[in-house]
Design goal:
Elements (H helix, E strand, L loop, with lengths): L1 E5 L8 H4 L10 E5 H4 L4 E3 L2 E4 L7 H16 L3 E3 L8 H10 L7 E3 L11 E5 L14 H10 L10 E5 L10 E9 L2 E10 L14 H13 L3 H11 L3 E9 L2 E8 L13 H21 L6 E3 L9 H4 L10
Helix pairs in contact: 6-8
Length: 322
């Protein structure tokens, strides 16, 4: 059994794995939330994936890291150490510093002065689509940052990110999604839109040429080498990276530790249907490789951080994260 731990209200992302609508056979998969486990003293023997790390508050990360260690000491297999997995800012900073990414990122509340323009503003911790508005010089940026508090956007938690994108072709822009599950790196799909800020993608804009390129990339696992480096650098063992090709090189925009993968709907085009089968089959195989056969329960040693939580857990209900 595999258990994905997420923040309250964000269990929908991999519901297809939990309810058997993924399209291929996968190991038993369950989803729970951190608040339920923070005070637990006994848990089922399973593989535990610490997801949604980017949505946790700093104090929650400390407790999650404490829980991770208690589970490891109990002999459980765990992926994504909350104490080591990099945040969005940490990862993008490290990717630029090591020469893997050509762009930088700064916190909006620390007087950001980008080395290159244009830039855009986004949230640090959620997965909503950022505004596609670009700011072309320091004066424009500072004016935008002054406006944010008046629009009920505190600067804390906002990022200024240098623009790094280029057209994919035929008036389209593209973003790729590549997973890591344990030791496996799996190129899954392409998303295309007619704007540089690609989020979900527009299926209607996937031409035959795009579908053929996607199939080749998935079948050959084209981007596996640079993405493995990024996941290793980030110390993330489960998640999906968003990336693109800019100037002939792979650039990484983020790694999501609670990625969405919906129910299986066979694409009408044979080549895309085959691509779906390849990607989902590899993901199923990777999940099988990290699976734990359930054999009873494991006791978790109480700690100074987690022991008090059991007493006030019944009243501890947090809102859903964005």
């Amino acid at each position: 059994m595999i258990v994905l731990i997420v923040t309250r209200g964000n269990h929908y992302t991999l519901k297809s794995l939990a309810d058997g609508t993924y399209g291929v056979k996968t190991p038993k998969f369950r989803i729970t939330h951190y608040e339920r486990l923070f005070g637990a003293w006994r848990v089922p023997r399973a593989t535990y994936i610490f997801g949604d790390l980017e949505r946790l508050a700093p104090w929650e990360l400390r407790i999650a890291a404490d829980l991770y260690r208690a589970m490891k000491e109990a002999g459980l297999r765990c992926l994504n150490d909350p104490a080591r997995a990099m945040s969005r800012v940490e990862l993008l900073t490290a990717l630029e510093r090591t020469g893997r990414n050509p762009f930088g990122v700064m916190r909006a509340d620390q007087d950001p002065r980008p080395k290159r323009f244009p830039v855009f503003i986004r949230s640090e911790n959620d997965h909503a689509k950022p505004s596609a508005r670009l700011y072309h010089d320091q004066q424009e940026l500072e004016a935008a940052l002054r406006e944010l508090p008046g629009l009920n956007f505190p600067l804390r938690g906002m990022l200024v990110e240098e623009y790094a994108a280029e057209p994919y072709g035929d008036g389209l822009w593209a973003k790729w999604g590549t997973w890591r599950i344990g030791d496996a790196i799996i190129v899954e799909h392409i998303a295309v839109e007619d704007t540089w800020m690609v989020k979900i993608g527009d299926h209607a804009k996937v031409t035959d040429a795009v579908a053929e390129d996607e199939h080749d990339a998935v079948a050959t696992n084209r981007y596996a080498p640079p993405l493995r480096e990024a996941f290793e650098l980030a110390a993330i063992e489960f998640g999906r990276a968003d990336h693109a090709t800019v100037g002939g090189r792979t650039v990484i925009y983020e790694i999501n530790t609670n990625p969405y993968s919906g129910i299986f709907v066979a694409d009408r085009r044979p080549i895309r249907h085959k691509t779906q089968q390849i990607a989902r089959g590899r993901i199923a195989d990777a999940l099988a490789a990290i699976d734990t056969i359930p054999t009873g329960t494991a006791s978790l040693a109480p700690t100074r951080l987690r022991r008090p939580i059991r007493w006030w857990r019944p009243g501890f209900v947090t809102p859903r994260r964005p």
